[in-house]
Amino acid sequence: MTPLSAPLAITLGDPAGIGPEVILGAWMRLRAERRAPPAFVVGGPQLLRATAEALKIDCPIVPIADPSEAIFASAVGLPVLAGLDGALTPSRPSPEGASLALASLKWGAKFALSEVAVGLVTAPVAKSALAGIGWDYPGQTEFLADACGRPYRDAVMMLAGPSLRTVPLTVHVALAEVPGLLSADLIMHKARIVAGGLRSDFGILQPRLAIAALNPHAGEGGQFGDEDARIIAPAIAALQAEGIAAFGPVPGDALFTPRARQGYDAALCMYHDQALIPLKALEFDEGVNVTLGLPIIRTSPDHGTAFDIAGKGLADPGAMAAAIVMAAEMAAARAAAHG
Fold it and tell me: From residue 140, how far is each of 13, 290, 291 by CA, in Å?
């Protein structure tokens, strides 16, 4: 892996969830495989040490006073920023835990924006717990967009794994609302951001974008709806006129076959499940949530807090390990792109 100019910042997530244990497990796995990039956790040295002891994870915790110490501390163990901490309470979310998660996220964003960290990896949070302490964002993505001074629509969620990348154009809305939310402008705006992100952060010079159809058989000539011909096809034609290698609309039942996946670098999907079902079916333990369109690099494991299994040693750290590696690779690609 290309050496990084600064470490990655990893946020704690909700301390009552599986975030602490997958951070520890991911770090130890990557270290054993000699793939661990320089990184530090934003707070929680005592919490992480208690988690390691409770679950018998042999991960040395190295408290640091400043992110600049992380690169050298990484040679000894997992660097963790001192000053933010909390108690180990697996499966028992609380206002105190939510406050710790929010403080870790805020500091992580500041470190990434100031380039003290080359990227941000966020562990999962509980939106309901955060709402209880005054959080008014739909999720971490929207918070980070706000922190970066960007409108929410510029923060594009891409789910990425070893063999597939998908982008839901509409996210947490009822399926019945999707047709009314789709527009040629929405498709084109997000497609431009995805193409730009694939170039700058993944080193793909000529990204190929597959655009999914909304309706079965892409509407079957209007028999199953006219959105594919009326909205999606004109947007694709306009993107092609701009020089973006977009094609479609591709019926959803044909878009994710092994042969089809070889023909594109990312699939833009019309609604949440159209994008997430194939990604989770194919890449569940290695799926990464990537935010494109921001000045900072941000990745996250594609799973939630899993309060039901927290503290039991059952959580698989694979997705967190993949998120850490992908953030490092994106940082290296972005540095190379900018000379």
Answer: 10, 12, 10
CA distance 51 to 27: 14
Cis upstream peptide for 249 (omega within 30°): yes
Distance CA 9, CA 120 (A): 5
Helices then strands, counting H and E runs in the chain, come out as 13, 12
Considering only CA atoms, give the Rg of the chain: 20
Nearest to 53 by CA among 313, 333, 241, 335: 313
Instruction: Please give the Cα distance from 90 to 20 (Å, whole number).
Output: 10
Write down the pTM of the prediction: 0.93
Q: What is the pLDDT of residues 86-115, one digit of tens each?
A: 999 999 999 999 999 999 999 999 999 999
DSSP string, 276-323: HHHHHHHHGGG-EEEEESSSS-EEEESS---TTTTTTT----HHHHHH
Cα gap 170→187, rounded to integer Å: 10
**Domains in the chain, ordered, with CATH?**
1-155+294-339 (3.40.718.10), 156-291 (3.40.718.10)
- For the chain, the straight-line distance linking the first and the last C-alpha, in angstroms and rounded, comes to 17
226-242 pLDDT, tens digit each: 999 999 999 999 999 99
